[in-house]
Amino acid sequence: MDSNNIDCLLLFYLLKGISIDSGRNTIELPNKPAMTWFTALANSCDTPTMTTDTTDKQPDNIDFSSLALAGIQGLHPYQPGKPIEELERELGVTNTLKLASNENPLGASSNALRAIQEPLQSLELYPDGFALKQKLAEVLSVNEDQITLGNGSNDVLDLIARCFLAEGRNAVFSEHAFAVYPIVTQAVGAEAKVAPALATDHAMPYGHNLNAMFDLIDHNTHVIFIANPNNPTGTWLTADELESFMLRVPKHIIIVMDEAYFEYVTEDEYPDTLQWLEHYPNLIVTRTFSKIYGLAALRIGYSVCSAEIADLLNRVRQPFNVNSIAIAAATAALDDIEQLKMSVLVNTSGLQQWEQACEENGWDYIPSVGNFICVDVGRDASQVYDDLLKEAIIVRPVANYKMPTHLRITIGLEEQNARCITALKKVLA
User: Measured between alpha carbons, how far is 189 from 17 in angstroms, rounded to an integer?
Assistant: First the structure.
């Protein structure tokens, strides 16, 4: 390049406002009186042409999935229940009844609805979970340093996997257990060891077979997930069954007791495993405000465990993972004992209503202690699900849990249950 072209290139960059560092001298833009002369000179120059070396040109099509971790490549996203708005857009139906996601038909506590007004006035501030942890510690009779807050209890399950699972390690859980267990296990590269469930003719059909789960434990097992009661089956384990199992499990293996539906259970032999924490330092209990407390939209849950394990979970927990509105609502909801009692009564009555309907119509079902019931429709449940959508009723097919003929149906109010029962009779006729 000759000297005139170099001058023109320099002037072009200067007039375009591009700074230049020669490595030896600082070049500053000319003062205003000199700008006219520089502009004239620049206009006499040809605009410099930028060239790019294409010898190492990247391919146009990149398979980004091949760049992901091996465990994530094979994952399928969690599929939530169909939203009401989506159904009404697709089919043009109205007055939709959603009994798909195990939500409380009574909604949130009035205490919670009042409490969320205060944080709405200070949305510019980051949240502080101290008040909720303090309240939980008081209600549950535990120490604050034993509590880890999560964006739903699913968030805590993910924290547990990130803390204790990795490639070369494995987690044990039951067939038909909550779908998040295989997701969080596979996402971190660990192996999922799935125990066969109890037989269909067992008193607790499709439930956790603790003996089968124990037989899968090996020297690479680091976590055992137990859902009590289990979603989607509604089956549960007694205190004696669970404690007998825990006594056999090596003490270095983390046992996760997922109790998302704990508050709904009325069975005398159902355990409160928080009382076992002192004796089992490898135990983590997870619970949620999404179910009986009616705060699913706010995404808030928690775990209780030893202070040592809680410290580890909090090391990988994202800062401010629970928002101020959720914290305020959950803290207030813990004081509404009447709402809690009413929710249990409505659910217990609704379960009885559904069990009676199943027996009268010859539908097989899995006895449940949760706020839902699994009904065997005796055919491909996805078609029955589609037919119920046309009746403006959303339930949940559970073929992804290897239960292709079952529908999981949330317990609603009496009139909601009756409407769903009538519609199910119609589509199964």
Answer: 50
Q: How far is CA 235 from CA 98, 220, 262, in A?
A: 22, 28, 12
Element containing residue 237 per DSSP (H, E): none
**pTM: predicted TM-score of the whole model, two decimal places:** 0.84
Give me the number of domains the chain comprises: 3
**Largest pairwise CA distance in the chain:** 98
Cα–Cα distance, 235 to 365 (Å, whole number): 11
Crossing angle of helices 414-428 and 381-390, rounded to 10°: 120
Q: Which two tokens stand for residue 55?
A: 């010898």
The DSSP line for 295-335 is: -GGG--EEEE--HHHHHHHHHHSPTT-S-HHHHHHHHHHTT
Beta strands, E only, 49-141? 97-98
Q: What are 192's two structure tokens?
A: 């999922």
**Do residues 297 and 331 both lie within one domain?**
yes
In which domain, by residue range, is 386 found? 81-103+338-428
Q: pLDDT of 124-165, one tens digit each? A: 999 999 999 999 999 999 999 999 999 999 999 999 999 999
